[in-house]
Design brief:
407 residues, mainly alpha, Serine Threonine Protein Phosphatase 5, Tetratricopeptide repeat, two-stranded antiparallel ribbon, 20 helices
């Protein structure tokens, strides 16, 4: 990859959401914003090799995209009305509610997560327009077909236009009802960065985890007393703290093999403080707060062998009452293997096979348990299935090595 191609790639990751959000604020049309942004990046691919990378790629892309949007509006059959409407949005954007945070991407998130949209559509649309994820990446996150995901996004944008959903941060009384789907979006964006699934992408996309943390910090500033916002921020920080130790020589490093001295102690300290803050509140915790507490236990142990597995299992038991999903049961079984042995855990995940047959982490867990039980042939088959389903290059390298070490 040339230096210019690398610059375009970096600009796409860093500036896509900013460009789309700025155009949405100016023109009030998600289709116009997304298509104009895509055209601007296509223009960059053509012109930057000859003209050089501009000093401020984000400003160049936003200006170019705005010109593309205006050109499109003027070309429309009813360009007069649309152009006047666009100018109205540009010049007379309604004021935000008192105390709202003036961030274009945050406004865009709340627009995409409006209650008028189906929950899955809110998440998919926001991942596309704010997270900058591709349709294949989002489809993998949802475990759905790409064609179905594309239709979901198209219908969501049409609904926003037809219902004239406003582009702004909701008022204070509307925020609690709206924040849950926003947290789901941010968590999925973070997860895609934590273990990237796109072909040709870095195995860990620091740009996505950083963006998810930044927007979650904004939400926390807006809703400091919301336990789940605080919990999600703590969860992200404690997970991000382990990033420096998670990949080595292009291969994923499992938690029990990570160099804990490489973990970010500042992020761990902040995450632990937020977890303690929620415990002191004396309010029954939600899903993200419990997940953060589980990660606090892991990051409190100086060595993997020092992990308080009884506490981890107790927290998973609490989480299952809040979120009785097969994925939670699978993760609980991983902890059970450390406390009660791999045979007990293998029996527990056997009950999840029908629900998680297409989920690569199920086969990763099963392969590891079978390996520990010296059931080599079965472990190899499970590793093969996990490798087939895994989309992360570093994880595939790790799984391949573990499979090839089997006798």
């Amino acid at each position: 990859m040339s230096d210019v191609e690398a610059a375009v790639t970096r600009a796409h990751r860093a500036e896509w959401a900013r460009v789309v959000a700025a155009l949405t604020r100016r023109f009030g049309d998600l289709d116009v914003a997304e298509e104009a942004a895509a055209e601007a990046f296509a223009t960059a691919v053509e012109r930057w090799p000859a003209d050089g990378v501009p000093p401020n790629p984000g400003a160049w892309l936003t200006t170019t995209a705005a010109r593309k949007a205006i050109d499109r509006i003027r070309r429309e059959a009813k360009r007069g009305d649309k152009y006047r409407e666009a100018r109205l949005v540009q010049d007379d954007t309604p004021a935000e509610p008192p105390g709202a945070i003036g961030d274009d991407r945050l406004r865009l998130i709340f627009t995409c997560c409006h209650p008028a949209l189906a929950t899955q559509s809110r998440v998919a649309l926001t991942l596309r327009l704010v997270g900058g994820l591709t349709v294949p990446e989002i489809a993998r996150a949802f475990l759905v077909r790409e064609s179905a995901l594309e239709q979901r996004i198209t219908r969501a944008k049409a609904k926003i236009k037809a219902a004239r959903i406003p582009y702004r941060v909701p008022s204070a009384e509307d925020l609690p009802a709206r924040v849950s789907s926003v947290l789901t979006v941010l968590f999925l964006v973070f997860n895609e960065g934590y273990l990237a699934t796109g072909p040709g992408t870095d195995p860990i996309r620091h740009d996505l985890t950083t963006e998810a943390i930044r927007l979650t910090r904004l939400l926390h500033a807006l809703l400091p007393d919301d336990g789940e916002v605080t919990g999600l921020l703590a969860l992200m920080l404690l997970t991000e703290a382990r990033r420096p130790a998670r990949v080595s020589a292009g291969e994923l490093v499992a938690l029990d093999e990570q160099d804990r001295g490489a973990w970010d102690t500042a992020l761990i300290a902040e995450g632990h403080r937020l977890v303690r803050e929620r415990l002191a509140a004396g309010v029954a915790p939600g899903r993200y707060q419990i997940l953060a507490a589980i990660n606090a236990v892991h990051t409190s142990a100086r060595d993997f062998r020092d992990t308080d597995w009884s506490q981890v299992i107790a927290l998973y038991d609490q989480l299952i009452r809040v979120d009785p999903s097969p994925v939670v049961a699978l993760n609980r079984a991983v902890a059970v293997a450390e406390l009660d042995g791999p045979e007990v855990a293998l029996a527990a995940i056997g009950r999840l096979e029908d629900q998680l047959a297409g989920y690569h982490a199920y086969h990763v867990t099963r392969a590891d348990l079978l390996r520990r039980l010296s059931r080599g042939a079965e472990a190899r088959a499970a590793y093969d299935k996990a490798i087939e389903l895994a989309g992360n290059t570093a994880e595939v390298a790790y799984l391949t090595r573990r499979r090839d070490q089997l006798r």
